[in-house]
Amino acid sequence: MTQPPRQAQGRPFRVLGIQQIAIGATSKARLRTLWVDMLGLEVTGHFVSERENVDEDICTIGSGPFKVEVDLMQPLDIEKKPAVHTTPLNHVGLWIDDLPKAVEWLTAQGVRFAPGGIRKGAAGFDICFMHPKASDEFPVAGEGVLIEMVQAPEEVIQAFARLAGRP
Question: pTM for the complete prediction?
Answer without folding.
Answer: 0.82
